[in-house]
Design goal:
The protein folds into three domains: 8-90, Phosphorylase Kinase, domain 1; 94-272, Transferase(Phosphotransferase), domain 1, CATH 1.10.510; 283-367, no CATH class. Helix content is 42%, strand content 15%. Strand 2 (12-20) and strand 3 (24-31) form a beta hairpin. It starts with 7 loop residues before the first strand and ends with a helix. It has helices at 52-65, 97-103, 108-127, 179-182, 189-205, 215-224, 230-233, 239-248, 260-268, 272-279, 293-299, 307-310, 313-324, 328-336, 342-350, 356-364, and strands spanning 8-9, 12-20, 24-31, 37-43, 75-81, 84-90, 94-96, 130-131, 140-143, 148-150, 157-158. It has a six-stranded antiparallel sheet, with helices on one face. Strands 7-9-10 form a three-stranded antiparallel sheet. With 368 residues, the chain is of the alpha+beta class.
């Protein structure tokens, strides 16, 4: 049965209900001695301790007990009360990333800072064999101090634990689930990378990379539909950020970033200064899909000129698109506005290709 305000549960006094879901309830509680405000999570009464949900709850407690990171909500205590397993956690005051991104327009530097903190937390968890499996904006809290706290390791797995999910079933949130999870394969750290990619795509563009009118349609889209480059939906984005998000969303796990640290390194290459400059520009000066090189030159703060007449824009775009996709058309025109010769343009464009081997192939194509 639900707990009530003022009720004593072990060393804790219930203050209020924070939330109720299909599996459990979360309360704000106060420790009787320290008077510290904390969050208490309990399973609903009909979730029997021996059932799969009860086992997941125990695993969540054990995994969180082994994790200590500034951007992961911390476990404080766990105990039984009248045969019911209780989890006591750090009380995170703030709002979810979903709520914040809907309520206000987030700047690119702000989202980059959140992304770095998310990936820092995941890198720490991954190094300890923990795969979250349910990264999404509603599981990411933004505190009153504007810091990230990663929540809900309820369906997380470790490299040492057996998967509780029966073959043919999937767990997680369909819109953020990687193709391999949808196919029934075991989630890996690259599955979390995909979910972070979906999250950043949604927060920065206001749309999910793939969609559909049913769960089946969404799952099919994850498997086969190529998303638009984020910069095509939000031309204010820095090109390297758009490229990094698309790499995180590759269908094959081996084509994504190898881990959170690699993804983090790509985001660190997007300077806050560049992001701030791009984000603060008037909308009328922003490029859209199909815009001329003149718009890109206005963005670069230089007088308009016809880059297409000076550089083989079409040829370079075609070669670059092999490695980074349709975003190449926007990137080449933007770079051309600041380049003085074709060799410089090739070098600047190559810097946006993630693979060193592919970068060399692209540069060699200059002479072919």
């Amino acid at each position: 049965m639900p707990f009530e305000a003022g009720q004593r549960i072990g060393d804790y006094e219930v203050v209020r209900v924070l939330g109720t879901g299909g599996l459990g309830e979360v309360y704000e509680v106060r420790h009787a001695i320290s008077q510290r405000a904390e969050a208490m999570k309990v399973l609903l009464a009909d979730q029997r301790p021996g059932a799969e949900i009860g086992e997941r709850f125990r695993r969540e407690i054990q995994m969180l007990g082994a994790l200590s990171h500034p951007h992961i909500a911390a476990l404080h205590n766990a105990f039984y009360h009248d045969g019911q397993l209780i989890m006591v956690m750090e009380l995170v005051s703030g709002e979810t990333l979903r709520s914040k991104s809907v309520r206000t327009l987030l700047s690119v530097p702000q989202v980059l800072r959140y992304a770095r903190q998310i990936l820092s937390a995941l890198a720490y968890a991954h190094q300890r064999g923990v795969v979250h499996r349910d990264i999404k904006p509603s599981n990411i809290m933004i505190t009153v101090d504007d810091e990230v706290k990663l929540l809900d390791f309820g369906i997380a797995i470790t490299d040492r634990s057996a998967d509780l999910t029966a073959p043919g079933f999937v767990v997680g949130s369909i819109s953020y689930m990687s193709p391999e999870q949808i196919s029934g394969d075991k989630a890996t750290i690259r599955s979390d990378i995909y979910a972070v990619g979906v999250t950043l795509y949604e927060v920065l563009t206001g749309k999910l990379p793939v969609g559909g009118t049913s769960n089946f349609a969404i799952m099919r889209a994850h498997l086969a539909e190529q998303p638009l480059a984020p910069i095509e939906l939000n031309p204010r984005l820095p090109v390297p950020l758009s490229v990094a998000i698309l790499k995180a969303l590759e269908k094959k796990p081996e084509d994504r970033f190898g881990g959170a640290q690699e993804f983090l390194a790509a985001l660190n290459a997007v300077s806050n200064a560049d992001a701030e400059d791009i984000y603060s520009m008037p909308t009328r000066m922003l490029p859209v899909a199909g815009n001329s090189g003149e718009a890109a030159q206005q963005i670069a703060g230089q007088p308009p000129r016809s880059a297409a007449q000076e550089f083989p824009i079409g040829d370079i775009t075609k070669k670059l698109a092999v490695y980074i996709g349709p975003i190449a058309s926007v990137l080449v025109r933007k770079l051309a506005a600041n380049c003085t010769d074709v060799n410089q343009l090739y070098k600047e464009a190559a810097a946006h290709i993630p693979s060193e081997k592919d970068r060399q192939h692209f540069l060699q194509s200059r002479r072919s």
